[in-house]
Amino acid sequence: MLRINQIQCYKEYLEERYDRLIERSNDYRYVDECKSDRSAFKAMKILDKLNKIKYLNKELSNSAM
Questions:
Q1: Nearest CA-CA partner of 39 in 15, 16, 62, 23
Q2: What is the C-alpha separation between 42 and 54, in angstroms, rounded?
Q3: pLDDT band at 5, cuts 50/70/90?
Q4: Using CA atoms, how far apart are residues 41 and 25, in angstroms rounded to an integer?
Q5: What is the pTM of this model?
Q6: How far is CA 65 from CA 43, 57, 60, 61, 62, in A?
């Protein structure tokens, strides 16, 4: 159970960070294109991590049944 809680906390942290980066990317879109691109790139990397976490979470919930 402890591992599932750790994964859930990490998932929430990544979701918050992803939202902040997407918002920053949209804010800088017309002001500073370089900052916007960097934020969007970081957000894509975090989205990849989120997809891996969701896959692991599915695997853990299936094996618990």
A1: 23
A2: 18
A3: confident
A4: 9
A5: 0.82
A6: 33, 13, 9, 7, 6
pLDDT at 38: 96
CB 25 within 8 A of CB 40: yes
Q: 21 with 46: CB under 8 angstroms?
A: yes
Would the pLDDT of 64 be above 70? no
The backbone torsions φ and ψ at residue 28, rounded to the nearest 5 degrees and listed phi first, read: -90, 5
What does the chain come to in residues? 65
Chain segment 6-48, per-residue pLDDT in tens: 888 999 999 999 999 999 999 999 999 999 999 999 999 999 9
CA atoms within 13 A on the CB side of 18: 14
